[in-house]
Fold these 2 entries.
Entry 1:
Amino acid sequence: MKRDVVIVGSGAGGGPLALTLSRAGLDVLVLEKGPRHPREAYRPDEMRVQHRQFYIPDLTRDPHTVVTRKTTESVRTHLGWISTCVGGGTVHMGAYLYRFHPDDFRMGTLYGETEELVDWPFGYEEMEPWYSMAEQEVGMSGRAELNPFEGPRSQPYPLPPLDRHPLSENLDAACRDLNLHPYPTPRAINSRPYQGRPACAYCFQCAGHGCRVGAKGSSQEALIPRAEATGHCEVRAECSVTEVLVGPDGWATGCVYRDADDQEHEVEARVVCLSASSVESARLLLNSKSARFPDGLANGNGHVGRHLQFHGVSYGQGRLAYDRHPDLPLRARHPFLDVSAMDHYFLPEGVSEIAKGGLLRFDVITANPLAMGQEVAFGSGKIRWGRDLADALQRHCREGVSVGFEVFHDFLPNEGTFVDLDPKTTDAWGAPAARIHLDLPEHHGIAGRWVVQRGLEILDFMGAEDLKPTTLGGTSAYLVHGTCRMGTDPDASVLDPWCRTHEVPNLYVVDGSFMPTSGGAAPTLTILANSFRVAHHIASELD
Amino acid sequence: MNTQENKLLEAVVERLLPLDDDLTRRAGVAAYVAAALEGPIHGGNRTLIERGLDLVDGVAEDDYERNFTDCAAAEQDAVLEQIADAEDRSVRHFFQTLTSLVLEGFLCDPSHGGNRDEIGWRFMGFGDSEPRPSDCLEEIET
C-alpha cells in the first residue's frame, strides 16, 4: 500500500511534519528508529544524563566515529547521537526555545560570504509566522515584550512565564542596574494546563530528562499524539530505516527499514522526508547508493555531510554562601531561575573576526547529587580527595548555592567539520557508520570567553564568589545542524528553500540538516518552525 | 577481580573517601566500582584501573616494604599523594578516573548499585536541606 508521505524520525523535524500533513488528510507513516517510552520510564536518574545510555544507541552496535586534528584513527563516539526514541531530542531538551535574530539569516552579507559562510535563502520575515505557529503548537511560556532585541512578532507566547526562583528578581535587578535587558527565558513547558496536558510540576530534573508529567512540549507529547488522533498518521517505533529507494526515473519510491526483530520491510510512498537529525539524515543519504547516485542519494555535488555544526555553548558560574547574603532568598528551592539576556548577541568591533557574541541564559545550578559531588571534587583545578573531599562534600549544599549561566553562540561552518562514512567501522548490521570530522574555528573560544566574562560580571555584581568559567567555546552534544544545507544554487547546496533535495523531486530533508548557519540562539525552535513551514508547502503540493 | 584485588580496591576507596561510621563501605562504593568496571559504561576503564592499583601496591612496597592493605592509614595517604601528583599523565588519569568512579558509587541513583540506602545523598544533605532527586515526582504520584 503506497503512503502519501513516509517520515524518517519523529523529533523536532518529524513531529511538525506528521501533525501538519495528517491534519491535511494525507496518509502519513512515521518510521522511528527508537522506542516509544511511556512517561513512567522517565526516571530522574542523573546517570542517564551523564552517560546517555538510556537515550542513544548502544555504541558497540550502532556507533558514530570521530576524528579531530589530534587523532589519526577515528574513535567511537556518542557525538551526533541526540536521542533515539519517539520525540527525539525534544523529549529530554531543557526546552529553552529561542527565535533567531534577523541577522542570523544573513551571515554572508554581514560578515563576508565564503564557501562556508552563506546567507539563508530567506529571511526572518518569512520564518516569523512559522515561529509563531511552532510556539503555539508545542506550548510556550514567556513574555516576549520584555526582550527589546528580538525581531518583530505577530503573536505573543500562548502561555505566561513559568514560576521562577525568587532569586530571579535579584538577578533581574542586577542586570537592569548594569543597563542590560533581562527577560524570562522562553520555555516550551506548560505554565498552565494546555492542550489537555498538565502544567509543570517544577521537579529538579528537567534538562536532560524526559518529562514525567507531560508538561514539556516535546514532539512526543505535543505533536505526535495529535497527528495520530487525526486517523491519518501511523507511527512505527523501533523501525530503523536503512535505505531510501529511488526508481528508474530518479524519483524516490520509498524506503527499506529493519524492525525490532531484524526483519526487513519495504515501504512505498509518494514523498519521502528524512528527519533523522543532521548526522543520521546525511548518513542515510550517503548509504543510499545506486547507479544514478554512486556517491550517495542527492549528493551529486558532494555537499551531503558538509557544513556540519554543533552549536556553540560556554558556561560560567559563581557561589552564593548563605551566611554572606542574608538579604538574598538563597534558601528557596526552585529548579528555574530562567533569566535570559540578549544584550551580548553581537560583539563590539575588534573582539573577533566575526562580531557575533551569544545569548546568556542564567539558571540555578540544580542540586543534583552526582553533579554536585563532581563539582566539589574536580571544580577547583586540583582534585579533592580524602578528608578534604569528605569535608567539602558534607559542607557544599549546606553552605550555599551555585548560580550559573549557559551562553549559546554561533558554530561557524568550516571545511574541517563534516560527516562522511567511516571506511572501517560499520554498525552491527553492516552499514557504514557516520564519521564526524570536527574542527573548531578560533572565534568560538573568543566569543565564548567574551560573553562568559560579561556573565561573570553580572554574578560578581550580585556578590557571588568563586567566579569561574567552566567551558569556553564548547560544542553541544544535543544541538546539531548543517550537513544538507539549504540554498538556491544547486551546485552549492543539497536542499532548495523548501528543504527539497535539488536532485530528487520528492525527497525532503526536514530536521536540523538544512541550516546553512547555526544562529547565535539555540536552534530547536528554528528547526520546529521550519518543519511547520515546509510541511505546509508539501501539503499544498500534494493536494 | 580476585579477593586480594578487591581488598586493595576497598582500601584505596576508603582513603579516597574516608568517612565516619564506615559510611563509604556501607554505601557500597567499592562494590559499585568493581561491578562498574565489568559493565557497559565503564568496562573500557578496567585495564586502566587494574594497572593503577598495581602501581599503588608497587609504591607501597617501595616505600614501606608492605602491601598497600597492610599499611597504616597515614602511610596509605602518603602513597596516594604520590599517585595524585605523579608527573606521568596516565597515572594522574588513573587517579582522576578512580575518584570519578568513587563519586558515582557514593552518589548515583541507587538503582545502579551504589549509594545504598541513599547514604551518599543523605551525607550531602539530600533529604534535609535539598530535595531528593525523586521527591518531586513521588509527591505527584501520591
Note: The mean pLDDT of chain A is 97.
Entry 2:
Amino acid sequence: MSAPERAIAALAGAVARALLLLYPGGFRRETGDELVRDFRLRAADRAQSGGGVRAVLWLCRGTVSLVLNAPGAWRERGEAGGEPIGTVGREARIAVRGLLRSPGFTAVVVGTLALGIGGTAAVFSVVNAVLLEPLPYEEPDQLVRLYQFDEEDPATDLFVSAPHFLAYREQASAFQDLVAIYTYEETSADLLVGERSERVRMLRVSSGYLRLLRRRPVAGRGFSREEEVGAPVALLSERLLDRLGEDRAGPGGSVELDGIRYTVVGIVPADLEDPVAGWVDVWLPLDLHSGGAQYPGNHYLSVLGRRADGVTPERAREEMAALDRSLGERWPDVADDGGFRLAPLHADLVGEARPILLLVLGAVGLVLLIACVNVANLQMVRALGRRRELAVRSALGGGRSALARQLLLESLLLALAGGTLGVAVAVVGVDSLVGLAGDAVPRSGAVAVDGALLAFTAAVTILTGVAFGLGPALALSRTSPAATLRNVSAGSSGSPRYARVRSALVTGQVALSLVLLVGASMLATSLYRMTRVDLGFEPDGVLTFELNLPPGRYEPESRASFHPEMVERLERLPGVEAVGATSWLPATERGYGWGTRPLTGPRAGEDEALVGTDQRIVEGSFFEAMGVPLLEGRLFDSRDGPDAQSVAVVSREVAERLFPGTSALGQRIRMGGQERDIVGIVGEVAVRPDGSTAPTVYHSHRQYADRLWTLTYLVAGSGEPTAALPEVRQVIAEADPLLVVHAPVALSEIVSGGRGREQFAFVLTGAFAMLALILALLGLYGVLSHVVRRRRREIGIRLALGADARGVAGTVVAHGMLVTGAGLALGLIGSLALGRVLGSLLFQTDAADPRILLAAAGTLVTAALVAAGIPAFRATTVSPRTTLVEE
Amino acid sequence: MSDPGDPHSFLPLRSVELDVLLSVADRPRHGYGILQDADERSGGRPGFEIPTLYRALRRMRDAGLIESAEAPEEDDDPRRNHWRATALGRDVLREEIRRLEVMVAAGHAVGAGSGGVA
C-alpha cells in the first residue's frame, strides 16, 4: 500500500473504532474488531482501484451507514434479551436536555459548525460537479480531443485542417468515431419564426456526431457523409422546438436560417449538451470538401474522437503518430504541420478552472478547520465546567463506556444540528457560487445539490462531532473522580495546562486567518491592477451589439454597402459621437490568427519573416469610436471601396517587426491568401482583459465583403451607453425589420466580464478571510475571558493590594498579543507558501510583496487588540471584595 | 418473530440477507468475502455497507439461518469468523428464489427485463 492509501485506511479504522461506541457492548465485543478491520480493508481497496478521492467518498457512505445502523443494532439486541431497549433513546434525551441547559454554548457551536460545514459542502459540490463528475456521455473516458501543433511552437494547440481530419477518419482504426465540429468561433444564425427573427445558437458538425455521443435522435436521423458539403439540411434541438411552441417543425419540415431554407432531417434530445459548445439549438453539416476545407495548412476544426473498445490511449497515440507521419509525407509543404496531440476530453475542458477551484476548496477547508478548532475550544471549556458532574457520575458506577457514549452523543447531536443547518447554508451557497462564477467555471450547469453533497456534509458532520467532542471529554473523564470531588474551588475551572492548550489552538486560528487574509489581499491587488491596465482603447460610453446580415437575403455587394449607410444613419442620432463596426471585439480573447508576410521592404523574401497576426475587419469610424490612436498615415475612408486598391491598417508591432528601420506605409503584405497595401499604422490594442496585445492587421469591410462577417457595432457617445438603444433599434428596423440587434451591452461590461475568473477567486477568498477573522477573534476573546475568569481571585487580591487597574488590564492584553504574535509568525510562513501556490492567478502582483503582508498583519493585530480589550476592561472591574468573599 | 419451523415466515428477505445466503449457501465465507462476492454479483454496487452486513450476520445467526463454520483449507485468512448457511437457511433461500422467480415471470409478461418482448 502506498502512503496515502495507508493514511486513508488508518482514518477509516479510526472512524469505525470511534463510532462503534454507539453500539451495544455485545455487538462491539463480538463483531467490533472484524468490522474495524474490514473498514480499513475496504478503504484501501477503494483507494487502490479508484484513487484517494473515491476512497474518501466511500468513507463518507460507510460513516453514515455506521451511524444509521446503530439504533437497529440496539433494537435487535433488545429483542434478543440483554440490556433494556430504549437505552439509546433515553441517553439521547439526557444529552439533549444537557445541551438545552447551556443555550448560548449550543447556539454558538451549532452556528459555527453550520457555517463551516455548509461552506465546505457548497464548495465541494461545485468542485465535484466540475472536476470530478464524469462527462454526461456513455463511457466518457473514451472521449478525446485532437489538436495539431506547429513545429516551431509545439506548446500551442492548433485546430485541425479538413484534409487531415478526413485522412484520420478514414484510416485510424484506434478510434470507433471521429467527428469534426466548428467551434473556431461561436456561430449563431437568425431563425425566421413567423414574422420575426430569433437568434439561435448554431453548430456545424460532420456526420457521426450523434453516434460519437452515443445518443439517438428523438426523431429522424443524423447527417450522412454525402451531406458533408454544407447541404441544406438541419438538426433541431427539442429544446428549440419547445421554445417555439406551435411553430414546430419535424423531420421533413423546413426552417429558414439567415434567409436560407434548410430541410429538417432529425430532432436532437433536449438534454444533449455539446461538450465544447454547450447548449446548441441547431446543427448544420460542415462542408469538408470545398473552399478553405481543401488546404491542409488551414486549421479551423475541433476534432473529437472516441477510442475503440479495448484500445488504450498509448495504442491510439502510436497509431495516430504513424498515420500523421505518412500524412506529412503526402503534404510536405504544409507550414504548420508539427504533429498532433490527443487530450482526454474531460481534462481538456476543465483544465483551466482546476487551479481556481482547488484554491477555493483549500480556502474553505481552512475555514472549516478554524470553525472546528473554535468548537473544540468551546467543548473543552464546557467539559471543564462539568468536571464535577462527570466525576460524580463516574464514581457512581456509570461505567466509562456509558460516560463516553453520553459525551459522544452530545457531540453528535451538536454536529447533527450544525450539519442540518449547514445543508441549508450549502444549498444557498451553491446557488450563490454558481451565480458568482458565471463563465469562470465550466460545466456550471452540472452543479446541483445532490447526493454527494449531502453525503459529504453528513460525513464531515459526524467526523467533526467525533473528533472534537470525544477527545477532550474523554481525557477529562480519565481524571480520578476522588481527586476532582475533593477539589474545593468549584468556581475556578481548569488548570493552567488546559489554558495553554486553548491558547495554542487560538494561535493556530490566528495563523490560518492571516494566511486567508493575505491570500484575499493578493487577489484583491491583482484584480485592482487588472482594472487599471491600459487596454489601448476607451471602453467607457460605448454600446455594442451584433448585427448579422443573413446571406440568404444579402449578397456581398449589398452587405458591403449596407454597413456604411447604417453607420451614417446611426451617427446622426443625438448624443452619438462615432459609430464603427468590427469582426471581433478587443480584450475578449477572440480573433482570427493568420500568418502575415511582407512582400516588399527589407525583409521581403525572408523565410522567417512571418508574424502571427490577429485579423480584424472594420467599418465606419471604428478607430474613433474605440479611441485607438492613429500613429502614421491614414485610416480607412470612402476611397477604400471594392474596386479600389486593397489596403490595410496595421498595428505598430506589425510595422516594426515586418519593416524594421523603414516606414511601413506603402508596403505590401500577404495573409490568408490576400494581399494588401499598408496605408496607416495605429496603436496597440489589447486582445485579452489583462492588457496583453497581439500584432493586428485591420481590413476594410467593403473590400472584404465577399466573405461573410458578422459585425459587432460600436456606438460611442456621451451618456449611458444603453440609453441610445431604443433609437438604434428603430433606425435598424427602418432599414430592415427582420434584422436582429443581438446581445446589446456596454463595452465596459464586456471588458470587466473578461476578468470574471479573477473576480470570482477574489470575492470568495475575501469572504472566507472575513469569516476566518471573525472566528479567530471569537476564539481569542474566549480564551482571554476564560483567563480573566480563572484568575479572578488573583486579580481581586492584586487590586485589593493596590495594583493599578490599568496594569492588570495591560497583563491581559499582553497575553492576547503574545498569542496573536505567535499566530502571526506561523501565519507568515503559511502566507509565503500560499504566494507560490497562487502564482498563476496573480496579475502583476508579487506574491511576497511585504506591503500586502504588513497590511494583512496590521489588520489582524488591530482586530485582536479590540478582542483583547473587552476582557481586559472586565478585569479592571473585578471588585476585590466580591471575589474574596466568594471563597 | 419468525417461526424457525417455517421458512416462509422469513420472507420477503431483506436484500442484504439474500446476498448473504447466496454467498454462504454452498461454501463458508467470512464477512469481507461475502462483501466481495456481492461486489462481483452486482458489478461493484453491492447495495449494502459493512455495518449493515455485520448487523445482518448477527441477526441471521440469532434467527438460525447461518452458523459459524470452520475456514476451508484454501482460505486466505483462517483466523476470521466464517459463516455457512444452516439447513433452515438453505430452505429459506430456496423459498425466496421461488418467490423472486414469480416476480421475474410477471415482469417479463409486462415487457420488462431482458427476457421479455422488446
Note: Chain B touches chain A through 16 residues (CB under 8 Å).
